[in-house]
Amino acid sequence: MHRRAALLLFIALAVLSIDPVIFSVAAGNRAKLHRFFTVFPDRQYPEFPAFLDDVRAHTQPGDSIAVVMPSMAWESGYRYAYYRAAYFLPGREVLPLVRPDDTAVPENFARAKYIAAWHRNVQDPTRHIVWSGRGGVLMGH
Question: What is the pTM of this model?
Fold first, then answer.
């Protein structure tokens, strides 16, 4: 009798501990979930991935690229830009212009072969515009 009660209690606890969200995700519309998770990271800057796609099309693997954003504060948008650029620009070296403590890294600006400036005006007489569009410019040496 005790074994049967213990088994029933175990089964009841196991069933009650299952999170219904897990089943809804697993049984849900995968295409809809894919669209959601593809767009979700870029909800604040939905045009930025298209800009990075064009930056990738105008650069080569091995190139170094620094990204300039409207906000150059790490927690106010630069962290997003830096990590998304690293994701969308495979094979290229993405150089941060700001550290997580908001300290500027001007040597990376000088070291970068390209500057990808999005919704921000950048003046540098040593560089020329390689491409412009989608809210930004790509400048190179």
Answer: 0.79
